[in-house]
Write a structure and sequence with these properties.
The protein has 365 residues and is α+β, with helices and mostly antiparallel strands. 33% of the residues lie in helices and 35% in strands. A 3-stranded antiparallel sheet has the order 3-2-5, with no helix packed on it. Strands 8-7-10 form a 3-stranded antiparallel sheet, with no helix packed on it. α7 (281-323) packs across α8 (325-340). The chain starts with a strand and ends with a helix.
Length: 365
């Protein structure tokens, strides 16, 4: 049997199934069927399927040409080839050919779920995501961190990494901004049994980012129910006319009731009030009819008042002209001027009393 081993290869010689030695680059000839040679590339990890690594580590030539690393449990090893990151090694024993390459290994303890501060964060760009958890918290958020369902700490904005070592990691995000809750179409009966639909709105911020989720089941629903009950309590005490006249008082009452529950719900309430009051169709028609009647009555009063004022003005003018003949003549000339503006031609005979002639012509004498 003739075997050729190239420069970037090595041969592993077996006789009768037992490893004998490593063959360097060259040409070899073996007689009989007892010899077998496995050709392996020195550019790859040193391993031969079906054989344990310890079988080959007894050979001194192999020991001089490989780098071995033994990764313990709850650790990972960052593998660098010629100063460049190559991969991440989990628990086990590994060997790499070091004939042409320089291998470096950096061991990291992952028994602690939290990543040590001396681990550079950029390295996670090269580590497979199966080895770690990545958590990103926005600038308007807080994050509640739980290990095995036990609260650990509250995370501020930023990017965080945690080792995947079997610990169950849960994260709950909380919005730190001003929040709004709308309650639309809430139907409530007034004291006189009129069904009103009222839309409410409130603005609040979360004051305790942990307790609001750990000690309250669905805090939004709790706020919603509190607003509903406050609305029903107020509306049920008054008639529809009183409610429509005092819309602001509803908002004040609802806000006060919700404000009283701030510490229970771990929130800070900034405002709460009524957006809209929607009347039933038949009630709305009646209200519109009443409004139209009120406006018509107001219009009639104004018309009568203006007519009286106009008549009084005419009476005063007549008295003045009766008492002052010159004023009467001036008023007469004023009216003649207005009339003449609409007349094409007027013919008068000689004489000095032109005004009398014009007056007779206009009177048809």
């Amino acid at each position: 049997m003739k075997v050729i081993v190239s420069e970037n290869e090595r041969g592993l010689l077996f006789k009768n199934g037992k490893f004998v030695k490593m063959l360097g680059a060259g040409k070899y000839r073996f007689f009989g069927n007892s010899a077998k040679v496995h050709i392996v590339s020195i550019s790859n990890e040193f391993k031969l399927p079906g054989y344990d690594l310890s079988v080959f580590l007894k050979d001194k030539d192999i020991q001089q040409q490989i780098s071995v690393v033994d990764v313990q449990d709850e650790t990972i090893v960052l593998h660098y080839i010629n100063g460049k990151f190559s991969g991440c090694l989990q628990s086990g024993k590994y060997a790499f050919w070091s004939v042409y390459d320089n291998h470096e290994f950096k061991e990291i303890d992952i028994s602690n779920t939290e990543v040590a501060e001396n681990i550079p964060k950029f390295i996670f760009e090269y580590i497979p995501q199966t080895y770690y958890f990545k958590i990103e918290v926005a600038h308007f958020q807080k994050a509640r961190m739980y290990f095995n369902q036990k609260f650990v700490k509250l995370l501020d904005e930023g990017t965080y990494y945690f080792w995947n070592n079997g610990t169950k990691i849960d994260v709950g995000f909380v919005d730190t901004r001003l929040l709004q809750m709308d309650i639309t179409g809430q139907e409530t009966l007034t004291l006189d049994k009129v069904a009103l639909r009222i839309n409410l709105v409130c603005h609040y911020k979360i004051s305790d980012y942990v307790k609001i989720y750990d000690e309250i089941e669905d805090f939004k629903e709790q706020i919603h129910v509190t607003l509903q009950l406050a609305l029903r309590e107020y509306v049920g005490k008054y008639r529809i006319d009183e409610i429509l006249e005092n819309k602001e008082q509803i908002s004040e009452f609802v806000f006060k009731k919700l404000k009283e529950r701030e510490s229970d719900y771990f929130i800070t309430v900034y405002d709460a009030g009524v957006k809209d009051i929607i009347l039933p169709g038949e009630i709305r028609d009646i209200m519109n009819t009443v409004l139209i009647a009120e406006k018509k009555a107001q219009a009639n009063v104004i018309t009568r008042r203006e007519e009286v004022a106009s008549t009084r003005s005419l009476l005063n003018t007549a008295k003045l002209m009766e008492e002052n003949k010159t004023l009467y003549k001036l008023k007469e000339l004023e009216y003649l001027e207005k009339i003449c503006e609409n007349v094409g031609n007027i013919t008068v005979s000689g004489g000095n009393d032109l005004l009398s002639q014009l007056t007779k012509i206009l009177k048809g004498e």
